[in-house]
Design brief:
Layout: H1 3-17, H2 21-38, H3 41-48, H4 70-81, H5 86-103, H6 106-114, H7 121-124, H8 144-155, H9 159-176, H10 179-188, H11 194-203, H12 213-224, H13 231-245, H14 248-257, H15 263-266
Helix pairs in contact: 1-2, 1-5, 2-4, 2-5, 3-6, 4-5, 8-9, 8-13, 9-11, 9-12, 9-13, 10-11
Length: 268
């Protein structure tokens, strides 16, 4: 795995727990080091082999598994973070387990969970961030009709075509970004746009796919059924409408997950 994979892991922890980069690094180190103590040496090694190289030493262990309840696990994470805030430590550990689910295959995850007692489900269950409707005072998503009208205007096409364009771009974007960011975008957009995002997430098994811009555009064109020459304008129309539809924090999170060659799509 590349340095970009390590960055994606830390970004996932950042996003799920709303931490700074340094805080997400610290939470990752504290949680993985504690997990190495809780798992058998073989189980820890199997997990480590599927993680970015920078994180593998945190799971290095040659000792037997230490009996530890979920509450005791969280206490050790808090201690390693230098904090006595157990609620925060639980959130941080949960975010790291959520990131693990993006990098470790299902067989190894199942093996890991088989070594953990039932009370660890509070840490290993997939995280969900509240959608707009669940947050008092949060504005409603941009209506689907208005979103598509803006895409149609930018792409110089009709609304029916704009829907195909939007679905193709969102499905491909769902493949390109991490599961946590897919969930965040889906929560901020009209329900009609969640299906293509989540379909792309399923196709990538919840793990961000390294995809240069030309490959992204090739997939968009293929899904939309148009020539590759049209894909850049169509993708740009959707991305610029996303910038208007999403809160600033979500735009920043999205930009952080995409490499510099995507800048022509993301420019305001």
């Amino acid at each position: 795995m590349s340095a970009a994979d390590h960055e994606r892991f830390i970004v996932t922890v950042q996003q799920m727990a709303r931490l700074s980069w340094d805080e997400a690094q610290r939470a990752t180190e504290a949680t993985l080091t504690t997990l190495a103590e809780r798992l058998s040496s073989g189980g820890a090694r199997d997990i480590a082999e599927q993680l970015p190289e920078e994180l593998r030493p945190l799971l290095a262990t040659d000792t037997d598994a230490t009996g530890m309840t979920a509450a005791q696990f969280v206490e050790r994470v808090a201690e390693r973070e230098g904090s006595d805030d157990l609620a925060a430590a639980e959130l941080h550990a949960h975010a790291v387990f959520d990131a693990l689910q993006r990098f470790v295959d299902e067989r190894e995850l199942n093996q890991m969970e088989s070594e953990l007692p039932p009370d660890y489900v509070a840490l290993t269950a997939p995280m969900q961030r509240p959608g707009r409707a669940e947050v008092p005072g949060q504005p409603e998503p941009l209506p689907v009709e208005e979103f598509l009208r803006r895409v149609a205007d930018r792409a110089a096409t009709d609304v029916a075509t704009a829907r195909r364009v939007t679905d193709a771009v969102l499905e491909t974007l769902g493949e390109r970004i991490a599961h946590g960011e897919v969930a965040d975008l889906a929560a901020e957009l009209a329900p009609e746009f969640r299906e293509p995002l989540e379909q792309g997430d399923v196709e990538s098994h919840g793990r961000a796919q390294g995809m240069p811009l030309d490959e992204f555009l090739r997939r968009v064109a293929e899904r939309e059924g148009v020539s590759p020459e049209l894909a850049p304008d169509h993708a740009r129309a959707v991305f610029r409408t996303l910038r208007e539809a999403l809160p600033d924090r979500e735009v920043a999170d999205l930009v952080a997950q995409l490499p510099d060659d995507y800048d022509p799509l993301l420019a305001a």
